[in-house]
Structures are given as structure tokens and as C-alpha cells.
Amino acid sequence: MGKTKHSGPIKLPGRLDPKLWVSKVPFGLGKIKPHHIRDTVKVMAENKDNLPYAFRILTQGVCDGCALGVSGLYDQTLDGPHLCTTRLNLLRLNTMPAIKQEILHADIDELRRMDSTQLRKLGRLPYPLIRRHGDRRFSRITWDEALDMIAGKIRQIDPKQLAFYLTARGITNESYYAAAKAARYLGTNNIDNASRICHSPSKTALKRSVGIGASSCNYKDWIGTDVLVFWGSVAANNQPVSTKYMYAAKRRGTKIIVINPYREPAMDGYWVPSIPESALFGTKIADDFYQVNIGGDIAFMHGVMKHWFEMERAQPGSAVDHAFVQGHVNGYDSLRSHIEQQSWAQLERSSGLTQARMSEFARLLAGAKSAVFVWSMGLTQHRFGTDNISQVANLALLRGFLGREHCGLMPIRGHSGVQGSGEMGADPFSLPGGEFKGDDIPRIEKAWGFPLPKWQGDIVGVTLENALLPYDHERKLKLFYTSGGNFLETMPEPEFVRSCLESVDIRVHQDIVLNTSTLVDARETVLVLPAMTRYEQPGGGTSTSTERMVYFSPEIDGPRMPEARPEWQIYGDLAARVYPKRKELVTFKDAYALREEMAVAAPNYEGVQHLRKKGDVFQWGGAWLCEDGSCPTPDGRGNLIAVELPELRKPEGHFYVTTRRGKQFNSMIYSVTDPFNAADRFDVLLCREDAAKLNIAQGDAVVAYNKYGTFHGRAKLVDIASGNLELYWPEGNVLLPKGIYEPHAGIPEYNAAVILEKAETYFALKDKRYVEKRIDELETEVIG
Known about the structure:
- By secondary structure, the chain is an alpha/beta fold.
- It contains 29 helices and 29 strands.
- The strands form 8 sheets. A 7-stranded mixed β-sheet has the order 2-1-17-16-15-3-4, covered by helices on one side. Strands 25-27-26-29-22-28 form a 6-stranded mixed β-sheet. Strands 9-6-5-11-12 form a 5-stranded parallel β-sheet.
- Helix 8 links the parallel strand 3 and strand 4.
């Protein structure tokens, strides 16, 4: 933990800087870009029936979008108001009225004709619902009937056949904590959260490299650092307010580097709506793009380190901070030996970049006095995601970019609640304030007053697969309780996931709206429970930002769903009904009592019990974790991790595919057109060189396929590294393999090898032998 405290927001410069302008044409007229004013007017129109409440949410609540931690319209990084279209798009979830009864209780096939966007727009869930197997429609049920039914089922089954999952949809730390406690009270360790499918490798890698499970630095450290690197992260799209920080960094002379297969337009230039200069003329963000192959990041980082070690042989101290390494780092000699054995030809082939380009980046970092490395799912959503992140940590440790101002490692979160999920124990490998092992188990047993189940819980992907086990298997999933989430649209092989959901006896969907997974049958019963939003929660709630700021979001006066309940309260009520004789161990008088216990169970959260009003905030761990190079590892030192190089060989006509986000928040899609590149949701992004080889022109109908599925779309020719394709998520999930999990953190594999052909070629030659032959070629020629 650090001793230095965050120093608070800073001011933006007042004078203009035309060198950073994208165009002298005002407002980017004629360019493909987001239309912030138009989108804001549209949101106002959508909320016209509840504008006063919408205004109070924006000005009093903590953002329920990304994890930048904007409280009201302000944050701890920059003076002035901050507002983005992501937050505005989410606003309607909080202000819309209840679903009309005639729609809510319509025939199930009528509801199934709608996609999740259409279902979301129907309105809020007004009261508990039930649909038994064979029923054609949802029926109303009381809270007591619903919770007693769930409790009865829990008493009948083995705790290993029970599982909980919590998404990051505006969920507060209080709800994560209450769910984690209720699950263990009920005897199960099968509890997981949304970070499993986004940033779980970040926590795992950072723990083994430097002993921390969160960002080591702050957003303020971006502003004035020599080099700011975005690795597999399109922050301008996924965390739009961060563009304001990037603007401030550029004004301080920071070089911004983007490492990504696709030259993302949003990171090339952006019109920041809350900065007049940028809103008028745009801001050039990235100084350079390194268009690495999908899955080629480790090779690229090894190339950087290989060049550093070559520089060191020629001139010791020219690339490595030896004082930092000698004082604070383990494994230098073994890492150097491992890297030096690799050939440049191998590194070039895997990374897709030349030795000269890797050396160029290596020299940039070697000449920098400070750097911040920011990454997201472009690095984590791989079967080697933990190894990806450990190599980023290697770069920081070798240069001493850790534990001081303008330096650090930042896994930037895309959801306002997800950082706190593991820290509150809603995770099969975590407990509040620690891990599910060692001294943390007796510590939590003492705090909670009951023994914990000692068996290892499953990650959510395995939990879903367990639904297909024989009925008498001890881990056969029989009751699945989800708070938010839609696995049909977040997991690989959606039809397989559907079969898993249908094989559960009872599924409970605790949510604020319907989605497509809510409508899937169950063996016995589907229950739908209406939850409150964070702004409705009595006593308020807290959330933890990417930079470890714990913000208090107060209860905000406004309309309510009469039967919606606070999520933390539902978990306690359910657990008390299962084992009523000990209910005082798992229920809380109010949110204040809950936070009092959180402060005890999770020592980093000491102070959360004092958060009571708008604007209350504290940062756990201080401004910089690992301050002065001292890491919370057993020996106080960071660890350089040597990993093997993932090899991918792509014959002509074969590609590696990954997914990207458009105008959406998680799987909630707000537009069929991407405002940054005008792509449709079913466009296949590929480079012109590859398209020419396959005789594919802009807009041609194409088919991408492999043994997992087939994707029909249209060619969108863009600036992307050759041999790589990008599809939109979740539409592209049909091509992704099920059951492949990263061995350290359990994140699913979100990349796959595919064949791409013109649709006319595919359909003209399509027969069983042709497709099977091409897929067989793909399987034998692509080596993982």
C-alpha cells in the first residue's frame, strides 16, 4: 500500500493548441464521428416523461456506466463537468416506466420474437414473475412465494448444485458483499461475477507479478507521463470520458501509443464534447499505432525486451533500470536468458511487426523517464491472457515504471461495479479483503460467525457446463441464480449455452429488465425478480472505480417500481429462509450496518462505513500501489515472469478473428451503426490487401466459418493488420469455441481461426465434403 494520498483534480490549460486539431472544419463536419449533441437531444427526448429525475441522477449519482468514477458530473482527475453518451444511453434504464401488463404476460413466443434491445425498451420489471415448464406466459407471483420456492429447492439439493452469478450492471459493493456472504452461508462456493469474462487475467497476473489485484496508479498519472500506452483497449469508445484525460495528457506533451490490430478511428482522433476546442476541431490522440497480430502481443513484448537486452550488452544501463531491478525485482537473469533464445524471425512472424518496429518502440520506452500502461480485453480475452498481462508487468519492472507519479499498470475497467466484485468476495477464488485460501478463510469465518465450505467453487463457464452433467452428479447445476447478465450474448457458442440454461431445474433472473436469456425454458421453473437500481437503493450504495476510488452514490428521490427490492436485501432474505434459525448472521438492518461489516471483513475498505452523502469518496491503497517499488508479495519484490510464445500460423485464405465493441455497453446495443467507422453490426473488418487476394470488394457478402459456426456478413475494408479479422460482439460469438478457458484465471477464449470466402463462392461450392475439407485444413494448419 502507498503512503502518498491522491492530490485531487487539476485544471485544463486555457489556451488553444492548433497542433492537436484533427481538422479546421468545425465540429468535424463531413467526417465519420459520434454526434454528441444529436445523441444528447435524443436521450432527452427518451426521458421526457421523467426529466427531473433523470437530471437528479446525472447530477447527484455516481455513474453506472464505466469505472472512471464520475460522481454527479465531476471526478477526482480534472476540474469541470464530465458527461458521456454511454452514461446518457444507460439513463433510460433508470427512468422508464414498468412494462405494460399485456406485453409482460403475452405468449412467450411473442416475447421471443424480440431481441434484447427491443426487450430492454419495453420497460422495467414491475413485480416477481414465474413461468413453469410448459407455461406459455409469465404469471405474477408474490415475493414470499418466489423466495420460499427458491429456498425450498436449495434445501433439497447439494450446495455444489447451486450457483450464483452477478453481472456489473450498476451493481453496488453492498450487493456483491451480501451475495458473497449469502452464498457461503448456503454452503456453496459457486459464485462468480462479470470480471471472469473481462479482466480476471489482469488480477491473476498482477498478483503473481507485483502482488496487487487492481490498478497501481491513477488517471492523473496519464497527464504528464512521457508515454501512455493503450494495449488492446479502445478507451475512447468504451470509456469516453477518458478522452478528456487524453486531451489533458497531450497538452502536457505525453506521447500516446496504441497497440491493436485495427487502427481504431476513435483513438486516432476524437471530438471531446465538454472541451470547446476539441468539440470544434477534434483532438489528435494517438502518436503512433503498432498493429500487432491478434494473439501476437507476447511476441511483440518479447521483441521489445530482446532489443533492450541487446542495448544493454552494447551499453549497460541504456535500457534497463538496474537500480530498480536490483532493489525490487526477482528473475532478471532467467528472463533475459529466455528472451535471448528467441529468434527475430519467430518474433516477427508471431507479432506481425518487423524487428525495426519493435526496436522503435523499445527505444521509445528506454528513453522515457515515466510511462503508464493501460490495457483491456484485447489482452485479457485469450487463452493466454494472464501471460499477456505478466509481460506488460515485465516491461514496467525492467524500466522501474511502478510505484511513483506518472507511472503504473492500469487494467481499465469497463463497468462501474466490477472492480469491487472480487474485493467483496463474489468470486470462487476470493473472499472479502483476500483470497479463498490460507489465513483469509479463518479470518472471514470469525468475521461472519459461520464455517465456510472448503471445496473449490467453479468459474461461471464451468458452472454452465455442469448443467449438462448426469442428474445424480454432485455438481449437476440444478439452481442457477443470476443478478443481471445474458449468457446467450456474452459466452462463446450461444446455442450450446442455450442448451445449458434449458437443463437447469430452476433459474432465477434478478434484474431490472427482460433479456433474451430470461425467456429460455428451464426444466422446472424460471423466476424473474425485480431489482432496484443503485439510485433507488435505501441508504445509498458504493462502487469502486478503476483507480480504486470508493464512491458513495446516494438514494435519489424519484419514481419507484413498487415491488422492486435492493439486491443486497434479497440475498439476505433468501438465505434467511433457507436456514432461519441463524438468520441474524446473514441479514442486515440497513445499508449502513452492511457497510460497517464490509469495513471489518475487507480491511482495504476501512472508511466505507463513513460514506453517507453525495460526494463522499476515499481511495484505498493511496495514490500508488507498490510505492517506491515495494510490492505486497511475500518478499516485497516484483517478479519477472518468463512465458512461452504462443504461435499461430495462418495459411493463405485463413484468418484469426477477434471481436470488438460498437455503440454499446457490454451486450446492450444502442445502435446498429458504429459511429466511428460507419460499420454495420454484421460487417467483417478486413484489410484491403487480404480482400484483394480473395477478390473481395467493399460491401461484398462474405462468409466466415470454422467447426464452431458460420457467420454471414459483408466486407468492410479497413486499416487492420493482414491476416486478422474483427467482428462485432456478441454477433461474432458463433465462431468462438466453447469450453476453452485460460488456465490461470478461467476467462473464456474469445478468438478463433476461421476461413473467409465470398458468399457466392461458399454457396456455389458448399457441400458436406467441401466444408469439412476446408475445416480439416484449418485445424491442421493453425497451431496454438
